[in-house]
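Service request form, structural biology core

Requester: graduate student, group of Dr. S.
Request type: structure prediction, single chain
Budget code: on file
Notes: please return the result as structure tokens.

Sequence provided:
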Amino acid sequence: MDTIPVTLDDIRAARSAIAGLVHRTPVVTSRTLSQMTGWRVHLKLENLQKTGSFKPRGAITTMKALAPAERARGVITISAGNHAQGVAYAGSVLGCRATVVMPANASPAKAEAARGYGAEVILHGAIAETFERMNQLREERNLVFIHPFDAPGTIAGQGTVGLEILEDLPDADLVVAGIGGGGLLSGIALAVKKTRPATRIIGVEPVGAPSMRRSFDEGKPVRLDGTDTIADGLAAPFAGTLNYEILKQYADDIVLVTDDEIRAGMRFLLERCKTLAEPAGAAATGAILAGKIKAPAGSRVVSVVSGGNIGAELLATHLSTSITSRTAP
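Core staff response, request fulfilled:
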């Protein structure tokens, strides 16, 4: 792709579009993580965002740009959970009817939250079947598709996270964030690299869902045969084409973490930082704890805590598994 259809001006315009409709989330320090790594580590707390994740940023940006006739038709999306909530919330504040199609095994808490924001929630099959059902409904009902990650408006909206990071920490040396399809990291990468080219950008994927890592290795966007990870928010079955093109140009590395390393990140954030993170939201911190991220001593590092949507029972399961994995011989 010769020309990337998302610019720094687009991201700045997105910030204006979402102003007053989402939170301006904080960047906080982690003294313990700083002592452990020898860096100055900060956490960007998107788990405190409206709906519990960064997703409303891209959803509102995209839906605000729709023509009145398109918005009147209504929108549809597919999601494991957080994007569903983001689109549902955007629909509620913009007066647009939203339909979200989720896998049958999607988090009940995330599905119920999307319903709570007023969306029609349809649970259907495994992820491939979910896509088919979404496309069928889109055609039958003449709805507008709001892509979870591979679309300019989505990327521009998520890029506002990068703008806020540099506003709070203008001399950041490294930003680390999780990758599902790539919408969040590609937006952050554009915002940060266009503003401060020296800042490094590193993405984190689960070992069981390495779509962008494999895309980098194979030189083209890759579709996985399947995924296997506790991080449903990072389990997109393919890398976005536009996301891949942006990250190929602006990301410095992509590293992989195991589910146990993700659980360790969750436990650390909860116990030491008093921050609740779902598996996808803890992946970046898990990668730092596991030594997967390399940076010189004293570096100013930002770990993006991208979401905190997890039910109490599942959280307890992951925390107990984390204890078991740490104490196993």
